[in-house]
Amino acid sequence: MAIVVILAGSWLGYRQLADSGCTGSIKLNVAAAPEIAPAVEQAAQKWAQGGAQVNGTCVAVGVTAINPATMAAAIAREHQVTLVGLGSAPQSVETPDVWIADSSTWLLRLKSEASGFVPTDGTSVAQSPIVVAMPKPVAEQAVGWPDKRLGWKDLLGKLMTSNTLRTGTVDPTRDAAGLAGLLALGQAAGAGPNAQAAKVGALRALAAGSSALRDDLLQKFPHSAEPNDVASSLSAAPLSEEDVVAYNAEGPPVQLAALYLDPMPPPLDYPFAVMPEVDLTKAAAATGLRQALQQAAFKNNLASVGLRGPDGSVGAGFQAPVGAPAATPPATSGDEAKGGTAASGLDAGALSQALGSWAAITLPGRALAVFDVSGSMLKEVPTANNLTRAQVTQRAAAAGLSLFDDRWAVGVWVFSTELDGKRPYKEIVPISPLTSARSEIQASIARLNPKPNGATGLYDTALAAYKNVQDSWQPGRVNSVLLFTDGKNENSDGISRDQLVNELKKLNDPKRPVRMVIIGIGNEVDRNELQAIADATSSGGVFVAPDPAKISDIFLQAISSRTGANR
Questions:
Q1: In the 3-class helix/strand/coil scheme, how is 361-380 assigned residue by residue?
Q2: Running DSSP on this structure, what letter comes out for residue 266?
């Protein structure tokens, strides 16, 4: 199989191989993150010029450099799902045969939303460690770089106490390095009574200086060596090592220091992912290309663009930042990970929780939180020190409310049976801006007292809540119902499931979309019942915590989802 590479729109090398004995042509389209694309092109060209053949068939390889967020949006569109924070990809962007994103987190995020997205291979072909980039004068003065090595907990402490550090990040919903930094800071916050405040403080500090694009963030670093300019510019941001190498190679007036913090987060791992729709012939060609990228010479190609080999070592000519380790831990191979994605120490749940926190802080929204206060919510939860289900839910709701910034509007309802005459639901606080109603809403959450003998009026409540949010719908925001329940409908005086489903379908309005997110608490919920309700709406989903003690984690996953999932 002869390989021919498309460079700058031409079939480079094809004529050179026309007499090599191969016949036919298989066109293999490869989309690669912009920083690795030149190295992939170079390696594939060398392979082609060597006359590589399999079964006498020629293969033409086209390598396109494309931002991973754009490609992820295009793949999501094809699978009719959306990822939080991503807009629509241009119609001209099509799914390739092979995608080399900068991180396996893109594959995990897509797979968690689209069950049909099951890429194969996933072997890491390069890596770049996650670092905290600082202007060198700031790094020297603020943290004692390069003599002193810090941990993520140290950085978290400085973010919480310093009035001079100006931190930022590339939007974690659109950038894998930003997401890795977000995860690292969240883990550094740990658990305990002060963890939530520390986490929220760090996230808001990052959000204050966030950018949608990496190039925009880099422009926030000092434009001159003048002390005032350095002091007023961006002080710190989680980026990849390659970002720092590339930035410093441009000769800026103030070089960036790369801080390798302990523990090192999983690196950008550049998985070689063969897309699900690829036929066997193209899959065989893709395997041949991936093998070419695993040759020793490819490490030198990577070094020329500021990347390491997948084993963490560097090739000849690598311009290592000051203090960089000679080698970093290897990226996890896709062969060791299930579902064709490199695990890299991450899972979809952890990503969803981190992105849910970020969405709550940075994306304006309107939410009607509807809480089950039926008698079963008095049941104790052994894994939560025998707190009741209601108390565990109150804690999760209070923690979630602390994440929402003042651009949110939130309302609170409760439901059981006969709470307002024959109505099973009751409004506690109407949907109100948090700028004026935060304390009132916080107080209402503390008073979610279950009705000892109350049953569950789920169907009437779900319909009324949906109508309420749709009737007060506002553009430019995510308008949602967040319904918490630990049981199934038990209201004999109310509407039936079929009536509810039919009414919700009639209410669906593409011009006023409402997300119906149902969070099941415990193992007594009827998952099929909840899914039927969610499926009748235009978007949303069902998220079940069999162990009620895990309700906070499930809540954050629900906030981050844009198409719904079962958990």
A1: HHCCEEEEEEEECCHHHHCE
A2: P
